[in-house]
Design goal:
single chain, 469 residues, alpha/beta, binds S-adenosylmethionine, binds iron/sulfur cluster
Length: 469
């Protein structure tokens, strides 16, 4: 009880002036990796990934695994969508894709020690429940035959309530899925109409109740703030409906407007709330969720106080990967399917983002790796610093000094100078032995990470990232 009260007080202290917002609302990465994906090299390919998988077995044959599978299909495109999707009204492409995916699973599993336990497994998309229950069952059994799952593995899936049937839900539960994440975004009719995603509260609620009755351990709901025609009041009404459902976690994403990548987003550009208007919507959401007892973890995540994300943040074991915040630090992440990303030891690898290229590689019996990176020592150090600040909201300099054999204030002297400016704006507090992110700093976490990102100092050809808020 005390905890939610403290958080509420923090939320009410979020005084942001237009000048402050202008200073910090810049294009910036979400730091699901460091270095970020635009820095990865096409010279990193299947051979490098194979070597990295084998090296990870040698260096730590007990290191757990996290598996991510990208199921990119959706029947219709939501105009705001920034995900890697393949739109197919007819379902004919799914069968051949699943065959390709099985080949990739088989090939990667063959390079990983069977003794390595899968502690986390996730189907993301697109819309995994675009698949029929029988297809989901096949894919799941195929994977379980190739890997050993820990008895308490987190097994999660993203679903679109508009296409998810009772049979889907029952199948997922029978297979052992214990976490489910539902896309809602916003219930306001004009917003839904403008982004071409019509989704009633009633049908969403009945799917939610079905999942609750089925005892998923954790249910997450996705919302987006900053969509066209949203206002603080209209968004607050959607948030209230979500609070009434009582999900365990909420992802309240900042709408990422990237029309240079997703042309369809241009169609409603003039109706998108900007600057202080967008901030007021965010604020309406954060106030309502924290008042209802949710803890703001950072970026877009909220969780109920008993949730393990909150516990992990407090005891400083929280971690960040391509799926956002996670409690599974120390696992190697193997990604499967079009556009998916692997993080093995100190290397990143990404698969082809276009379905045709992915399939062509697999059918040519090659791992479909499109690009990747082997981290330098400096990358590893900065990844650790950024990760700790963004996950734990505190960084103890001594810990970094001991782990990396350096003097923090000497190595990071330009960064510490820059942090003083952020301190003047109330985003961080600097003590001789630590850096602490304030309540205000929690909503500008990307900017705090950016201080330590050396790659942002290089000139860029064009826009790469969405705005930080
Ligand atoms: C793969 S989808 C979730 C499952 C399902 N496809 C659905 O939409 O219900 C992942 C989530 O990404 C978020 N998302 C998609 N495009 C976005 C954008 N441009 N900006 C911010 N969030 C976005 C949405 O909240 C969406 O629920
Ligand atoms: S259903 Fe989800 S993944 Fe598919 S287009 Fe809409 S937001 Fe994107």
């Amino acid at each position: 009880m005390k905890e939610s009260l403290d958080i509420r007080l923090q939320a009410e202290k979020l005084a942001v002036s237009p000048e402050l917002l202008q200073r910090y609302n810049l294009p910036g990465p979400r730091y699901t990796s460091y270095p970020t994906a635009p820095e990865w090299k096409e010279s990193y390919g299947p051979d490098e990934l194979s070597r990295s998988l084998e090296a990870s077995n040698r260096s730590d044959p007990q290191r757990p695994l996290s598996l991510y599978m990208h199921l990119p299909f959706c029947e219709r495109l939501c105009l705001f969508c920034g995900c890697n999707v393949v739109i197919r009204k007819d379902h004919e492409a799914a069968g051949p894709y699943l065959k390709d995916l099985q080949w990739e699973i088989d090939r990667v599993a063959g390079r990983l020690d069977r003794s390595r336990r899968v502690v986390q497994f996730h189907w993301g998309g697109g819309t995994p429940t675009y698949l029929s229950p029988a297809q989901m069952e096949d894919l799941f059994h195929f994977t379980r035959d190739k890997f050993d799952f820990a008895s308490d593995a987190e097994i999660g899936v993203e679903v679109d309530p508009r296409v998810t049937t009772e049979e889907h839900v029952r199948t997922l539960q029978r297979l052992g899925f214990n976490r489910i994440s539902m896309g809602i975004q916003d219930f306001t009719p004009i917003v839904q109409k403008t982004v071409r995603r019509i989704q009633s509260y009633e049908s969403t609620r009945s799917l939610f109740d079905l999942c609750r009755a089925g005892q998923f351990e954790s249910i997450n709901i996705d919302l987006i703030y900053g969509l066209p025609h949203q206002t603080p009041d209209s968004f607050a009404r959607s948030v209230d409906l979500v609070i009434d459902m009582h999900p365990d976690r909420v992802a309240m994403f900042s709408y990422a407007h990237v029309p240079w990548l997703k042309k369809q987003q241009g169609s409603f550009a003039r109706h998108i709330p900007q600057g202080m208007d967008k901030f007021a919507i965010f604020r309406a959401g954060i106030e309502r969720f924290t008042r209802a007892g949710y803890v703001y973890i950072g970026f877009d995540h909220f969780a109920l106080p008993g949730d393990e994300l909150c516990r992990a943040q407090k005891d400083r074991t929280l971690h960040r990967n391509f799926q956002g915040y996670t409690t599974k630090a120390g696992a190697d992440l193997a990604g499967f399917g079009v556009s998916s990303i692997s993080g093995i030891g100190n290397e990143y690898a990404q698969n082809y983002r276009a379905l045709e290229e992915y399939s062509a590689a697999v059918r040519g019996r090659r791992l479909p790796t499109m690009r990747g990176l082997s981290l330098t020592d400096d990358d590893v150090l900065r990844r650790e610093v950024i990760g700790r600040l963004l996950c734990h909201c505190v960084l103890h300099k001594k810990e970094i000094e001991t782990e990396f054999g350096l003097v923090f204030d000497d190595y990071f002297s330009p960064e510490v100078a820059r942090l003083r400016e952020l301190e003047n704006d109330g985003l961080v507090r600097l003590a001789p032995d630590r850096i602490v992110v304030t309540s205000l700093g929690r909503i500008f976490l990307r900017n705090i990470g950016m201080v330590f990102d050396v790659y942002l100092r290089k000139p860029k050809d064009g826009p790469l990232f969405s705005q930080t808020l």
